Structures are given as structure tokens and as C-alpha cells.
Amino acid sequence: MPGNNSSDIKPGQRVKNLSFTDDTLSVDLEDGRTITVPLAWYPRLLSATPAQRANWQIAGGGFGIHWPQIDEDLSTEGLLHGAPAPGTGVGAK
Prior knowledge:
The chain is of the alpha+beta class and 93 residues long. A hairpin with a 4-residue loop joins strand 4 and strand 5 (64-67). The strands form two sheets. A three-stranded antiparallel sheet has the order 1-2-3. Strands 4-5-6 form a three-stranded antiparallel sheet. It has a single domain, classed as Uncharacterised protein PF10387, DUF2442 (NE0471 N-terminal domain-like). The protein has three helices and six strands.
């Protein structure tokens, strides 16, 4: 597909499940890895209610997560690269 850099995306990087603590988001991948990131990286998720966080869908052919009530989308590629939401000021050291 033109414009699709699929060489960086592996089938095992599909989302299997996810969970939250008060401070973190953990995403389980089909290949057995779990990615845990601070909620502070994603202000919409941080300020969402537990019910809004629980209302998620697998998107992007299994390589993304969508929260319809808060209009938030994350990709496994971004999570694996440690990419916080733009404008958060996180990651600049």
C-alpha cells in the first residue's frame, strides 16, 4: 500500500487487552509483551472517568485503540516508540 510503512508493524503487535491503574495505561499485545505508559502522556485519558476509559475498541486492524466518548486514538507503534500525545511537553529532556 502506498504511504503505509508496514515493514515496521509486526502481526504480534496487535492489541489483545488493556488495563488502567490510577496513573498508568497497560496494553497487552498478542506477542506476549505488555506496554505500560504514564497516563500523564495522554491528557484525555487522564481526565476521563473510569467508565469512559473502560469504553474502548480495538481499531486500525488490531494495531490501534479508540475511545469514542473522549475521541482518543492510540497506536501500538506509537506506544512501542514511547510517543506521548503532542503538546504534552513530555519527553523533551
